[in-house]
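=== RUN LOG ===
request id: a7f3
mode: sequence -> structure
chains: 1
length: 476
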Amino acid sequence: MHSPKPEDVPAHIADVCRKLRAGGFEAWLVGGAVRDLLAEHRRAAQDFDVATSAQPAEVARVFGRKRTIPTGEKHGTVTVLVEDGAGEKDHVEVTTFRGEGAYSDGRRPDSVEFVRSLEEDLKRRDFTMNAIAYDPLDDRIADPFGGRDDLAARLIRAVGEPLDRFREDGLRAMRAVRFAAQLGFTVDAATEAAIPRALDVFRKVSAERVRDELVKILCSPRPSVGLELMRSTGLLGEVIPELLEGVGVTQNRFHAHDVWHHTLAAVDETVALSPMGPPWIVRLAALLHDVAKPRTAAPREDSPTEKTFYRHELVGAELSDAILRRLKLSTREREHVVNLVKNHMFWYAPEWSDGTVRRFISRVGAESLDDLFALREGDVRARGRGEEPSVEIGELKTRIAEQIAQAAALKVSDLAIGGADVMRLLGCRPGPIVGEVLRRLLERVLDDASLNTYERLEALVPELAREAGAPPGATR
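=== RESULT ===
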């Protein structure tokens, strides 16, 4: 267990406390930054929040109206504008000691009462490790609920009665399992037992807030810790109930685990470094990649005790799309994850022609290949059979790189002919037939890259237009 030191606190943060003290008020650092300074494996403390006995109007008087923003004055929060050591602007949240009334919406208190006692303020917080305060001026710690002991024991424990804390803010249950995954901590037994009894309040939480906590779980060192806690406490049934169908569903000789435990292992094993987005995007795809296996399971004809899961990737893509719409992902993020789920079941063989390789690139999208391979590698490792993913996809990666280096046409926009050319050649206006002809041209070019010249494609347009069902007059 570490003890924070005044020099651990940025000078401009300490200065905020100093000015409040000079105005006759208490000033303490609170929240995650204090927890991180105390943790055994110190994390870089960020987002220092200040709790004070000064009320919002008094904070404004101390710092002046030009340097304060009443961001949450009703709830006691004022943002103070200061310069950090590098001369950059920093926004420091200063919140008045407060007590809170009931939480009828499961998110915010119906009423707030300003108090002058630090302990009264700390007892409204979620977990003991977040209910520790530090005074950087006098180098002292206030820890009325044993947060330091719980940090040392690597324990997440609610302040006071756990059910009361979870009923105040429905998201706190997700925060508990998220901290367990992020920090590698255990959730206190009484705290964990209260989560299922607070699911009615959790249901009031917006999809966006739940999604943000799920993202943090997926970004943690071992997401499986948080995901398994979500399952055992009932949270998963509220967020992605489709995943529960995989619990206990055995697979076949290629897998050591049931569908659920294979999924957990795949999420942990998937590591992505891609231009398409942050690593959690691919881990979300790993979480959903086998979501349809229970719905597509059937006995193997040659081994009835084993299962097959034909087309589970296609059914899974449809399920994933619905799940991600519920979670309010952006269109770009949703489409990318669905694309990964849809295409994760590829089987490369050295006999693939160059045209087959080009078709694979075109189907997946060159910009999505790195993420798809990251998902595939995590999926293979998670089978639990000690397989090395590079054996399966190493040669394919090499061949893909060769095709991309040759600047092969892989999408319609790579063709040597465009929509305006097709309309001129057919004497038609914009419409579906133009896109269909371009698609068919691409199919030909994927098979034979040498066709991608204007002259050769121009000669193919009338034929492909007739195949596509264009009116006779449109193929003159």
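=== NOTES ===
The CA atoms of residues 161 and 339 lie 45 Å apart.
The domain at 241-408 is CATH 1.10.3210 (Hypothetical protein af1432).
=== END ===
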